[in-house]
Amino acid sequence: MYAIIRIRGTVNLAPRIKRALEHMNLRRINNLSIWSEDKKNEGMLNKAKDYAAYGKINDEVLKELLTKRAKSVNASEKVDVKKVIEELKKGKTLNQIGIKNCFTLNPSIGGFERKGVKVPYSLGGALGNRGEKINDLLKKMI
């Protein structure tokens, strides 16, 4: 599963990139969304790579994220983390389980990498594919 975090804002944003970000429920800075790994989602990630950071989330960080930040569609229901993780591994989406697929995170403690939010991760910045390093960023933002 991919964890996608919106890093940059909406100024001078092309309409096709804006639509891709809205489709992934990333309407504001520091929002996180979780998506499966398939061709359609990889195409949207390719469009949004200059405005978001993404990578593969591990189970430990996913459990911490769900316990602290998950919101149920029905406000009266509690979130059962173990059940949600099992359902995600079976291939269901968060919306099918009954959880909102938009998590609001805090700004990164200690900031982003030294070259800032306009440079790709491969060149020392914060954007684009981070692979497994997305988990370190998520721990700083939860």
List the helices and strands and how they pair.
Layout lengths: L1 E5 L8 H9 L7 E5 L3 H10 L3 E5 L2 H11 L11 H10 L3 H4 L5 E2 L23 E2 L4 H8 L1
Could you characterize what this model shows?
37% of the residues lie in helices and 13% in strands. With 142 residues, it is an alpha+beta fold. It has a domain at 2-59 and 102-141: Ribosomal Protein L30, Chain: A. α1 packs across α2 (39-48).
In short:
This protein is of the alpha+beta class and 142 residues long. It contains six helices and five strands; from the N terminus they run βαβαβαααββα.
Keywords:
37% helix, five-stranded mixed β-sheet, alpha+beta, Ribosomal Protein L30, Chain: A, 142 residues, single chain, 6 helices
CATH architecture of the domain at 2-59 and 102-141: 2-Layer Sandwich
CATH class of the domain at 2-59 and 102-141: Alpha Beta
Number of strands: 5
What integer is the average pLDDT?
A: 92
- Helices and strands, in order, run as EHEHEHHHEEH
Helix coverage percent: 25-40%
Radius of gyration: 15 Å
What structural category arises from helix and sheet content?
alpha+beta
Point out poorly predicted stretches: none
Spatial shape: globular
SS field, number of helical segments: 6
Biggest sheet, strands in spatial order?
A: 4-2-1-3-5
Our estimate of the beta-strand percent is 5-15%
Biggest sheet features: 5 strands, mixed
Spatial separation of the terminal alpha carbons:
18 Å
Q: CATH homologous superfamily name of the domain at 2-59 and 102-141? A: Ribosomal protein L30/L7
User: Would you give the CATH topology of the domain at 2-59 and 102-141?
Assistant: Ribosomal Protein L30, Chain: A
